[in-house]
What does this fold into?
Amino acid sequence: MTAFTPAIDQRYFEDYLPGATYEFAEEVSVDEAKIVQFAREYDPQYFHVDPGKAAEGPFGGLIASGFQTAGLMMRLFATHYLSTVASLGGPGMDELRWLRPVRAGDRLHLRVTVVEAKASNSKPDRGLIRTKAELLDAEGRPVFKADVLNFLLRRP
It folds into this structure.
């Protein structure tokens, strides 16, 4: 895995260099109970909430909601990539794609690539970064990807 230096509590806009790619070793996973619990509240489609019906459905079994998968990505993104001292939030994500079903027990980790870093003309203390974020399964196959936009403070 490629390390991102400086440390997360010392990163500013200038440290996010276009073209740089980083992978983080920490893995996240969900079990069947978490898949069903999330889906009952936020995405109650049968292939997320009913293992019996899901077994006969298009995915051949229970799968996590894509929005649960996006939440797993965001947890890793905030924990390992996004500066804890310079982040100012972001205007959104583009191109969310669910590439493979996520199933109970799948182990996922984060790979990010800095796509663009633009200093603000109107607010010189900050800039906007665009990051391609991907969740990869244990075999290294992408299961989710999105372009994430974040405002970051420039180094004082």
Remarks:
- Helices lie at 32-42, 46-49, 51-55, 66-80.
- The two ends are 29 Å apart (CA to CA).
- DSSP finds four helices and five strands in the chain.
- The mean pLDDT is 97.
